[in-house]
Amino acid sequence: MEQTYYINPEKIIKIVNRMENLKFAGLEVSDGSHVVIDIEFKGINPDAREAGYTFVNKKQYIAAEVLKKAKIRFSRTSAEVVDSNLIRLTIYPPEDTSFGIE
Prior knowledge:
Blueprint: E1 3-7, H1 9-18, E2 22-29, E3 35-41, H2 49-70, E4 76-83, E5 86-92, E6 97-101
Parallel strand pairs: 1-6
Antiparallel strand pairs: 2-3, 3-5, 4-5
């Protein structure tokens, strides 16, 4: 029997916006099989190579902090840099669970 785990978008927005140099950029729930959270890294010069390396190195830390603070249950995640200052965090639910929005 499948359960639905509800995500509170306002909670995620507050968590991301309170983190240093981060800004919430978007949330998408598909058919319940995954959630996508876009997070913008503020104050980064897209042309600066060093800033880009720092951003890439921080993506896993940022993803872990968002998941921990939002208390989202998951089976697996992926965090990828999709633009010079944007991380796309994809979260997949545990087995026999789907995601929904509160």
